Amino acid sequence: MNAPVTAEPPPDAPGSHTPPVAPGAEQYPALDLANSLIVAPGGHRTDLLGTPAAAEQWLVGHGLAPAGTGMAELCAALLRSLRDHVRALLGAHVAGLPAPAESLAAVNEALTRAPCAALLHWDPARGLYREASHPVAQIVEHALAVLAADTADLLTGPDAERLTACGSTPCNRYLLRHGRRHWCSVRCGDRARAARAYARRTGAATD
Fold it and tell me: Taking residues 160-181, what's their average pLDDT?
């Protein structure tokens, strides 16, 4: 996958500037994936997928991989690449722009890379049961397929109209809007209100 490239300062260690989960990200893992690269005031960046260990921890935390998988950098890079394409699709949707063709192709490729559905099986002791069937070697491919499917569900479902970008600069996170709220966290809301108050004061002082 060829991910969109942007010039950004180097990331900080995961967790150093991590805000609480954005509204909607608990419901949609794809939204939390998009928000896994965090930009904070002062240019601080936290990449929750920045290392193979961090990427594995993120997948384990979302029930997409077992602990102790031993993820390699190649797999972590695939996850980061999908994140970039998901962010591109979310950004285009929020801005009312056409979906980038490269990102559509990347998400569709991930969708078909491995089955993301829990298949129906029979066992003499258990009877009928459903389970996702994929060998250990396909753990990451399966996770990518699940995240791609979740992206498609978010962008085509009833919650798509609630998708918005955090209105507090320089935050780069997305969220599902509740009422008039356009901030991903209390911290971002406080910062946005403070910025508006400062703009009003300085504007009045120059009149």
Answer: 89
- Count Cα atoms within 13 angstroms, Cβ side, for 110: 30
Query: Is the pTM value of this prediction over 0.85?
Result: no
Mean pLDDT of 96-116: 91
CA distance 35 to 61: 15
How far apart are alpha carbons 44 and 180 in whole angstroms?
28
- pLDDT value, residue 95: 96
190/173 Cα distance (integer angstroms)? 16
Residues facing residue 47 across a β-bridge: 37
Q: What share of the chain is helix, strand, coil (3-state, %, to 5)?
A: 50, 15, 40
The C-alpha atoms of residue 41 and residue 106 are separated, in whole angstroms, by 31
Give 205's pLDDT tier (boundaries 50, 70, 90). low
Q: Domains for the chain: give ranges and CATH numbers.
A: 29-206 (1.10.3300.10)
E strands in the chain:
37-40, 44-47, 119-123, 127-131, 163-165, 174-176
